[in-house]
Amino acid sequence: MEDETFDDISEGSSVGAAQRVFHALSSAPRRKILAYLSASGLTAGEIADRFSMSKPAVSQHLSILETAGLIRREKQGQFVHYSLIENNLVNTLNGFVQEVCPVGRPIKKESQARVRAKELP
After folding, report:
1. Which residue among 22, 72, 108, 113 sits deepest, i.e. has the most Cβ atoms within 10 Å of its Cβ?
2. Using CA atoms, how far apart are residues 113 and 90, in angstroms rounded to an integer?
3. CB atoms inside a 10 Å sphere around CB 84
4. What is the CA radius of gyration of the chain?
5. Which residues pair with 76 in a beta bridge?
6. What is the Cα 84 distance to its own chain's centre?
7. Is the C-alpha dihedral spanning 44, 45, 47, 48 positive or negative?
8. How far is CA 87 from CA 4, 41, 83, 84, in A?
9. Residue 118: is its pLDDT beyond 50?
10. Which residues lie closer than 8 Å to 118 by C-beta, 6 or more apart?
11. Torsion of CA 86, 91, 93, 97, to 10 degrees
């Protein structure tokens, strides 16, 4: 019997949905993207600027997160804005994990500081 792959699981099954989420969270850059989006949305370019990888590679990570149902995108003019899907249990749990994660915590704090700086007159 052949092993079931990520592509073999039907989109509607709960096993498929869980596998997409675990696949999305298995990557450190994708977890960092979720941390950057924890306080506010960012454009694709703003996300890419935070990584030392090509924009197509960042785009692929964003696509995987979107397919897993963790983020949403909205095209506004020439820019694509990404934000967390907040009522998602996985994102809620990921937010708690980021509070204790030595990598995620500073990124989350940076994102929150950026939002506060925008709110100041």
Report:
1. 108
2. 23
3. 22
4. 15
5. 79
6. 7
7. positive
8. 30, 15, 12, 9
9. yes
10. 40
11. -120
Query: Which residue matches tokens 């999305």?
Result: 24
Type of residue found at 3: D
Provide mean pLDDT across the span 59-79.
95
As a whole number of angstroms, the distance between CA 56 and CA 15 comes to 28
pLDDT of residue 19: 84
- Indicate if the alpha-carbon torsion angle 77, 80, 81, 83 is positive or negative: positive
Dihedral pair phi/psi, residue 84, rounded to 5°: -70, 150
pTM: 0.69
Q: Which two tokens stand for residue 78?
A: 């020439």
Q: Could you tell me which of 112, 66, 58 has the C-alpha nearest to residue 88?
A: 66
For the chain, the three-class secondary structure string (H helix, E strand, C coil) is: CCCCCHHHCCCCCHHHHHHHHHHHHCCHHHHHHHHHCCCCCEEHHHHHCCCCCCHHHHHHHHHHHHHCCCEEEEEECCEEEEEECCCCHHHHHHHHHHHHCCCHHHHHHHHHHHHHHHHCC
